[in-house]
């Protein structure tokens, strides 16, 4: 039953209270609407259906999130593959350690799954099919998997992986926010489970 309005920045009663820095380097803003009046033609969509246009946008946005996650995970994997044979500890390259091999194999496998899931969802959207379940699946799976992959890459780079001289902390912080933005993973998993169980709780 919500209605959405476009509110111009200079509308009386539209107040930006403060800028809040986020961990990924971006910022969000606290706003307050105080007797803020807008003409009826600023209504977005139809009355009581304000969530509908947002929902359409969120579908595409979550596909974007999945694609960004794949790109960031691939970058981390490329860095692991390049670095592991170069770094020798205790007489052996990191690439010969089973844990490191597992990180690399696991990353490649999960990236492969992420790509196929995302292509499948995009194809179904193009076909005009209901993809609410797939969208929730790819949003939570891809952001969580990419975060793990980047974390393993940071671990593999040791102290160097903790510096701001490498891009990994940027990827990690970005992915950390993406596990919350556009709906936390737990909410998307809840959507999938409710759909499968046929319940509303
Ligand atoms: C800068 C910014 C931009 C954002 N942009 C968007 C956007 O464009 N679109 C969008 O949809 N969201 C966006 N979000 C996310 C959204 O605003 C909320 O932050 C998010 O939906 C979580 O709600 P909340 O912060 O009130 O946390 P809460 O609702 O208090 O939840 C806190 C935590 O509790 C857990 N939790 C809550 N409910 C459940 C449940 N039912 N089952 C299991 N666990 C649960 C989750 O782990 C969750 O992270 C954005 C957030 C920020 C900070």
General description of the model:
There is one protein chain. The protein has 201 residues and is mainly alpha-helical. The protein folds into two domains: 4-44, no CATH class; 51-197, Butyryl-CoA Dehydrogenase, subunit A, domain 3 (Up-down Bundle), CATH 1.20.140.10. 55% of the residues lie in helices and 11% in strands. The protein has helices at 51-83, 98-126, 132-156, 168-178, 185-197; strands at 4-5, 14-21, 27-33, 43-44, 88-89, 92-93. The strands form three sheets. It has a two-stranded antiparallel sheet. A hairpin with a 5-residue loop joins strand 2 (14-21) and strand 3 (27-33). Helix 1 (51-83) packs antiparallel against helix 2, helix 1 runs antiparallel to helix 4 (168-178) and helix 2 packs antiparallel against helix 3 (132-156). The chain is globular, with a radius of gyration of 21 Å. The two termini are 20 Å apart. The relative contact order is 0.13. The mean pLDDT is 95. Bound molecules: flavin-adenine dinucleotide. Flavin-adenine dinucleotide (FAD) binds at residues 22, 28, 58, 180-184, 186-187, 190. Residues 22, 28, 58, 180-184, 186-187, 190 line the site of flavin-adenine dinucleotide.
């Amino acid at each position: 039953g919500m209605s959405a309005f476009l509110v111009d920045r200079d509308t009386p009663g539209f107040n930006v209270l403060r800028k809040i820095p986020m961990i990924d380097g971006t910022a969000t803003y606290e706003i307050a609407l105080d007797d803020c009046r807008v003409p009826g033609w600023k209504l977005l969509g139809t009355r009581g259906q304000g969530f509908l246009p947002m929902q359409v946008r969120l579908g595409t946005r979550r596909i974007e999130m999945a694609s960004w996650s794949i790109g960031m995970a691939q970058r981390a994997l490329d860095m692991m593959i390049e670095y592991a044979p170069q770094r020798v500890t205790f007489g052996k390259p990191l690439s010969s350690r089973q844990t490191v091999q597992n990180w690399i194999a696991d990353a490649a496998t999960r990236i492969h799954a992420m790509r196929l899931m995302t292509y499948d969802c995009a194809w179904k959207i193009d076909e005009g099919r209901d993809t609410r379940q797939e969208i929730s699946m790819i949003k939570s799976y891809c952001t969580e998997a990419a975060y793990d992959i980047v974390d393993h890459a940071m671990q593999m780079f040791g102290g160097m992986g903790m510096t701001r001289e490498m891009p990994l902390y940027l990827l990690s912080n970005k992915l950390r926010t993406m596990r919350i933005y556009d709906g936390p993973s737990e909410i998307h998993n809840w959507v999938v489970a409710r759909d499968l169980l046929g319940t509303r709780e």
